[in-house]
């Protein structure tokens, strides 16, 4: 089966945005007069909850129930999340650093006949902010399908987001690969029938990526190859369309042998 599309996660996969998200949460808390501070260790725990609004609510329920009661009465949780989003978008205007190999791979895929898609639990506004600031307005047209938090009721690790991407692409899962940075994302993609290349980010390096085809330090560059964390990368030292096709073909051969 020919590889026809590559579906990218966004936060932590295209760019190390989680620290920007954390700073935006803390800025919104301070602006609202709350004494909440999400340090790195706490934020790592909170990342188990997908979506910023749900993350705020979960934190308040677990750590600040008295604050939660007042905020729900005033309808302040949604306003707090909106303020966080505004702070995040403002930080994006300064530019988020893309992870190694991301810009090159997107450029290579555009000329390869393999379509590009995105599947993220961020808002569409946050996704577009990242793409616009990293690549320019025209880059939004690079993506044949985009699924964001607004599009599904059940976020990752539920397979619904990836199933919707495949539906919008008009593809069966064996015709595509996903690129993810977290175990939750890998589980979501695998649940939708997709095979996955994993490149853990700063918050996800200790997670279980045993469901991924290959686990890499990043996507690599010709002059700075990726480090192989697990799996067989074959003859490749950086991720490009040929590497993705090769990995996809190995899986396809395995399926054929098992049939």
From TrEMBL:
Name this polypeptide is given: Haloacid dehalogenase superfamily, subfamily IA, variant 3 with third motif having DD or ED
SUPFAM superfamilies: HAD-like
Matches recorded under Pfam families: Hydrolase
InterPro entries membership: CbbY-like (IPR044999), HAD-like_sf (IPR036412), HAD-SF_hydro_IA (IPR006439), HAD_sf (IPR023214), PGP-like_dom2 (IPR023198)
Top-rank lineage group of the source organism: Bacteria
GO molecular function, one term: hydrolase activity
């Amino acid at each position: 089966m020919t590889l026809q599309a590559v579906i990218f996660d966004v936060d932590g996969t295209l760019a190390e945005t989680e620290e920007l998200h954390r700073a935006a949460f803390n800025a919104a808390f301070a602006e609202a007069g709350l004494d909440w501070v999400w340090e790195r260790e706490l934020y790592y725990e909170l990342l188990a909850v997908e979506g910023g609004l749900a993350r705020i609510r979960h934190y308040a329920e677990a750590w600040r129930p008295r604050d939660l009661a007042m905020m729900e009465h005033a309808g302040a949780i949604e306003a707090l999340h909106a303020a966080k989003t505004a702070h995040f978008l403002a930080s994006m205007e300064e530019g988020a650093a893309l992870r190694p190999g991301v810009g090159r791979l997107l450029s290579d895929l555009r000329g390869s006949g393999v379509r590009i898609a995105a599947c993220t639990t961020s808002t569409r506004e946050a996704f577009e902010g990242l793409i616009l600031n990293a690549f320019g307005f025209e880059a939004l047209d690079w993506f044949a399908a985009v699924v964001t938090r607004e599009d599904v009721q059940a976020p990752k690790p539920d397979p619904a987001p990836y199933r919707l991407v495949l539906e919008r692409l008009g593809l069966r899962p064996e015709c595509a690969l996903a690129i993810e940075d977290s175990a939750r994302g890998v589980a979501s993609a695998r649940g939708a029938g997709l095979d996955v290349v994993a490149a853990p980010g700063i918050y996800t390096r200790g997670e279980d990526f045993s469901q991924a085809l290959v686990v890499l330090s990043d996507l690599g560059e010709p002059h700075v190859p990726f480090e192989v964390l697990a799996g067989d990368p074959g003859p490749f030292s950086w991720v490009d369309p040929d590497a993705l096709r090769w990995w996809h073909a190995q899986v396809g051969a395995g399926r054929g042998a098992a049939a």
